[in-house]
Amino acid sequence: MDEKQIMVNKYVTKEYIKGYGLRTPETYFLGQKITKDIIDWLPDEFVIKHVDGSSGDCVLVLKRDQDDQDKYIDPIGNVLTVDDLVSYEHKWKSRTFLVEERIHSHPKLVEISEVDDAFIDFRSYIKEGRYWMSRMRVPTKSSGGLANTCRGARVFNINHGNSFVSDIFHGEDDDFIEVPYYREMEESCDRIGKIFNGIDFYGVDGTIDPRGKFIVTELECVPKLHLKDGVKL
After folding, report:
1. Which of 22, 94, 130, 150 lies in disulfide reach of 17, CB 3.0 to 4.6 Å?
2. What is the pLDDT of residue 232?
3. Which residues pair with 71 in a beta bridge?
């Protein structure tokens, strides 16, 4: 299979890189229709997304309400019922989606966000088979609790030399924030660079979990850079 074909399907990507020892979220379900029986079978926390989606379209991050087992809560407190989830399929537009394990970010990272238990997403870039740079995307309430920059998530540069970060859009100096286990992420990206050595430039998305392990959530064969003037490839 062509390397780009592997990258555009999130399920195929995860299964492929697992074979090389990379850590990825567990897949619970893959299909085009979700039923009440499937929802009842799922664990208390999970993520639903298109296998070929981009820009965070139709992503649901959910946790079962412990007071009402038929309700689910998203990162900013919105409530969805089981019936809501079953009827949500019209948004999939007959596209295949997957339900996967909800990964939690390291507590030191979660402290940065105004959203409780936020998923702090790292977009790293691989250039000519080697790790090049990373951005840290932090969910906000206006972004719906998702690390989606199109919806208002904050974006931070990471200083490759000392793993500290700074907000690139608001001009704020946040050098007091240090990314824990940054080298773990860098090493994982270098390993991925050796796997997909037929593509000169692409993105790796993931987070650092509470154990300090880098978890790869997906790859982007045509990543958006949003670089400042003067930054050259």
Report:
1. 22
2. 36
3. 81
